[in-house]
Structures are given as structure tokens and as C-alpha cells.
Amino acid sequence: MPRRFGPLAVLCLYPLAVQAGSIERQLQKLDPEERAHQVCIIKGIDTIRRDGKLPRADRLTTSTTARATFSGTQVAAKGGAVRAKSHWYALKFKCDVSPDQMKALTFSYEIGGEIPEHEWEDLGLWR
Asked: Which of the residues 32, 53, 107, 121 has an alpha carbon 20 to 30 A from that of 94?
């Protein structure tokens, strides 16, 4: 079953990224694996926007069609998704994090095809 993060993790942490001290306090409250996923989400959205692939990307999930893995200092996702302009796209990525999981160091990715809206509910995606 795909990993689901609570509303705090997916919806709230990215907007807090602009408040440096606040994001660090929120991240410290999470267990190491979830913290690694969250810093990768933040880094991923920023990287995808800056690369110009999806300049309006605003959400990213690590485990949509397959559970992402966390091993040592790397999160790897073969079944993630990224949202831009109210459309979801399949996403594969690898993200290296610091040993304390407080910072994503690298984010490499591949954007796949658009995920049809009729599949969103089953995958835990939203508008």
C-alpha cells in the first residue's frame, strides 16, 4: 500500500519552507524517515520549478503508485507524483539527504505522463 502522510506533512511543510526557523522546528518533530521524505518534497518542488519542466509545480508525493524507500541517506521513489496547474504527473526520483535528515542535498528525477483524473481518488491525489 502506498505511504500516506498526514495533512501536516504534505500540505503544511512546503509553505513553511519560506520561514527557515519554523520549518526546522516542524521537521525535528517528525521521525527520521518521514523527515527525509519531507525535505525531499521541498527540494523536489524547488528543483522541478527551477529546471523549468513544470514551473508551476506546487505539490509532490513520494508514494503514489509504489512505496518510496528510505535507506541510509537516500529516498528513492519509483511511484511518486508531482502536481502543476491542477494536473498530476508520474514521478521517479532519487534524493540524497544529510545524516540528520534535515536537508536534501541532491534531487534527480524523471517526470512521466499525466495521471488521469479518474485515478486520483484511488491514488490519494487531490485537485
From this structure: 121
φ, ψ of residue 38 to 5 degrees: the values are: -70, -40
Cell of 56: 508551476
> Cα Rg for the chain, rounded, in angstroms?
13
Quick one: angle between helices 20-28 and 32-51, nearest 10? Answer: 140
Nearest Cα residue to 63 out of 105, 110, 4: 4
Helices (H), 6-124: 7, 13-16, 20-28, 32-51, 120-123
